[in-house]
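FAQ

Q: What does a record look like?
A: Structure on top, sequence underneath. For example:
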């Protein structure tokens, strides 16, 4: 009888121990899978990559690009609330890809890029109320493609990229009030092409990209009030970080930054979340569609949508919304 009671106690301890490990394991799995992707309306235009875009309110705009055969100048708008696409006035410059897009106080801007023969330096503004494009001042520096650009505090900023012979690291400021560009100094990072940015408050974060055949791991923040750059922890600071890549997209949601998809010796689906308060990264649920580089992202800080791009020679037109704090549901 004593021996049977002893066996019962031993089995109970083992059961509790097994249950404890199972619960811990499940908690870890849930944490790793945090983030959900939901299919949204497929892009109405032809599949393409290397597009440029900007977001004005709840409307995301995608312009130009390459579909595997032709460089494009078509422009489309996505209504985030209504989940539908509509075609807008064509981009008036040369058809191109690898251009930049940004927004300043309700006006969109697209410029630079590559037309299949040359790197470009022309820029155009878009008025969403009149659905019209207007040519603005050309970039006074070297023409280029695969640069980065962002709008903040009433100004546009443009830098890095590839000029046909050399990767760049210079930065320029555009003032829409005077239609002029001025060069900025102080960026201490590596020169690069196909980098990524995202904006949190009045801070702009820049990282990733490639130069001399190497994926870059330095990570920087631009203070838009002082127009100064500060180096943050490298993107490979932790052994389990696999953030380095090129041709990705960056966006911000609810005070966090995100880098998604891109290329690192092949197209990617992985998504990383940046916490500016701790200067650390956490992996999120991967993009649910095919792996891809050169996608487009629309974000207004409360919603984010990723799609288009290419994987190898396959050009894509699917489009998903990201919910970073929801558990993954494969049925969505």
């Amino acid at each position: 009888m004593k021996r049977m009671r002893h066996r019962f106690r031993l089995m109970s301890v083992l059961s509790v121990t097994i249950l404890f490990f199972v619960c811990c394991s499940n908690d870890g799995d849930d944490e790793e899978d945090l983030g959900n992707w939901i299919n949204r309306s497929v892009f109405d235009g032809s599949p393409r990559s290397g597009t440029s875009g900007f977001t004005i309110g709840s409307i995301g705009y995608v312009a130009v690009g390459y579909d595997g055969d032709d460089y494009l100048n078509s422009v489309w708008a996505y209504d985030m609330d209504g989940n539908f696409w509509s075609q807008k006035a064509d981009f008036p410059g040369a058809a191109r890809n690898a251009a930049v897009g940004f927004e300043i106080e309700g006006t969109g801007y697209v410029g630079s890029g590559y037309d299949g023969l040359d790197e470009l330096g022309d820029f155009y503004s878009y008025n969403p109320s009149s659905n019209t494009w207007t040519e603005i001042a050309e970039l006074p520096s070297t023409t280029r493609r695969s640069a980065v650009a962002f709008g903040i505090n009433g100004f546009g900023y443009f830098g890095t990229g590839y000029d046909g012979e050399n990767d760049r690291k210079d930065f320029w400021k555009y003032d829409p009030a005077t239609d002029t560009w001025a060069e900025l100094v102080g960026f201490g990072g590596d020169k690069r092409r196909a980098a990524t940015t995202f904006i949190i408050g009045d801070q702009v974060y820049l990282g990733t990209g490639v130069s001399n055949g190497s994926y870059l791991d330095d990570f920087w923040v631009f203070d838009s009030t002082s127009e100064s750059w500060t180096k943050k922890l490298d993107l490979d600071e932790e052994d389990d970080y696999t953030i380095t890549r090129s041709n990705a997209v960056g966006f911000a949601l609810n005070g966090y930054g995100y880098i998604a998809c891109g290329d690192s010796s092949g197209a990617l689906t992985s998504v990383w979340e940046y916490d500016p308060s701790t200067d650390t990264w956490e992996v999120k649920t991967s993009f649910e569609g095919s792996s891809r580089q050169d996608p487009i992202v629309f974000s207004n800080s409360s919603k984010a949508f990723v799609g288009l791009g290419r994987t190898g020679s396959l050009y894509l037109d699917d489009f998903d919304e990201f919910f970073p704090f929801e558990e993954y549901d494969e049925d969505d």
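Q: Is there anything notable about this one?
A: The mean pLDDT is 91.
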